[in-house]
Amino acid sequence: MAKDETKELSPSNEVRDADSDDSGETIFLPPDGGWGWVVVFSSFMIHVIADGVMYTFGIFYVEFLKYFRESKGVTAWVASIMVGMVFTVGPIASALTNKYGCRLVTIAGSILASFGLFISVFAPNVIFLYFTIGIFTGAGIGLMYLPAIVCVTCYFEKKRAFATGIAVCGSGFGTFALAPLTEWLVEYYGWKGAMMIISGLLLNCSVFGSLFRPLEGIKSIKKNCTQIHASQSESQKLCEQSKDNIMNNIDTNNEAQLKTKHSLHVDGNTLKPVQSHPDLTVTSSYLKGRFSPQDLLVAKRRNSAFPRVGSPSPEKISGIYNRQSNYHQNKHHHHHGVLYRKDIFYSGSLIKIPEFHSSSAVYTTSITSIPKEIPTKEEWKILKCFHCPKEMRDAFHEMMDFSLLKNLVFLLFGLSNFFTNIGFNVPYVYIKDRAIRLGIAGNENASLLLSVIGIANTASRVILGYLSDQSWVNRLWLYNCSLTLCGISTALSSFSNTYILMAVYAAVFGATAGAYVSLTSVILVDLLGLDKLTNAFGLLLVFEGVASLIGPPITGWLYDGTGSYDPGFYVSGVMIALSGLMMFFIPCVQKFQKFPTQSSGQVQKV
């Protein structure tokens, strides 16, 4: 038994195991450039069109009020269902993306969203729009939104913050550009003609989606050690480095023991270890030419003398070897879905992640998670009925793991997001009609308020993104203060009784709302860690979808009851401000969670 375990740890045996698989191990290496910049441009354009249509829908809302003559609360459901579907379809979009890739899912979403807007022209009533615009267009935009982010993160690591920053800025730019464009189309072609043109614009997202070329993987080729090591000099060099690294990490008392039992020598062209040290692992990544030898050779110094070679415990084997063992156990599955990457939803700078900062090479090989085997009895019936592929089931189970709700920090963050989204979409839907009802602007100038929100949002994402990467900035406090200010300004917008003051409010709202969108993923990693990012992101989409569904109708109902938008904006502002103030208690909750663990540890010692 001891010999078998020793054999597993040997570098040569590790190479043979990796090469024994006919198909080999596929590694997807982000190029940090190249075609990635085409992907960034495509993602930017999708954000311009999709988010531009969604956030300027308040222009169509005014036209629906005139045409169908329904109450504001009833009509507001059109926009709220659409935005709610964008978020709630997220886990489904993730599962589809994991199986079929970003390109196909984006094209399908573009066609569905365009179809929903086009057939809305024939709507006999508002309820018809609930299905066409609310469900079809909302689901289509949701299918485009997630791949547009995921594809960028697949292509970038070191430049990820810059690349994703460019892509998501399309959201604010789209709001800025499409507001006057939509108003002009409505004025000249009516709302039906304008909607047909906008549906054609949405269909162009399929063109940009077709540019989401899947990242090409590098496959290991089946070969023996003699073929891998091209020359004896290269083997000798690696051997000398191995001995130097070990010799520098042992005590002088163990030097003789190492030379006799733990040395490496070259036999012909093949590198063989006479005995393998439990903490010495030579990975096959070097054989693919990706990393330097220093990243492939892991040698750790123990406080005591080397143990007798025999049966090392798995917990003491290095992380790289554990990852390769997991691969060999799952080598017949060959799952290469993008959502198997732990950092796929992380849009910030990877330098902030300790694993990447310590060794980017080791980080690259560790971010791929092996899918868990889920017992059949635990699988959800709906997934079994539709015979979903394993990649889809893995992604859905990962994102919809409700056990994370037991974490008090995430629960508080989820409630904060829920309250934020109750009021987040209210200004986008109602600010035009509010300005018209107050008599401070006509249709054209009132629509420009949406442009002010868009340009302020774009500028704030750039500024806040830069600040969040600075070591002297507390990102949680930056997020909390932005949300609190956003809520206070929304609640006090009732004092904006002139067009200038309303434009100032629009600018403040757009700037502070940018923090909520751009900092969510980095805050999640700061609070929960990278391993729980995908799960947390999936559950947050549900929180956000439900809140977005009920937020705008509440303001509409309050207007129907009071004849003023002020009460609705009061409620929205209080909800957003409360969501920011709640987050200031996160450090206290973190200490509370650590206290029981520390107390139990002390009891065990006693």
UniProtKB/TrEMBL annotation:
It comes from Limulus polyphemus. It is found in: Membrane. InterPro entries: MFS (IPR011701), MFS_dom (IPR020846), MFS_trans_sf (IPR036259), Proton-linked_MCT (IPR050327). Residues 1-18 have a biased composition (Basic and acidic residues). It is a multi-pass membrane protein. This is Monocarboxylate transporter 9-like. Its main location: membrane. Residues 1-25 are annotated as: Disordered. Keywords: Membrane, Transmembrane, Transmembrane helix.
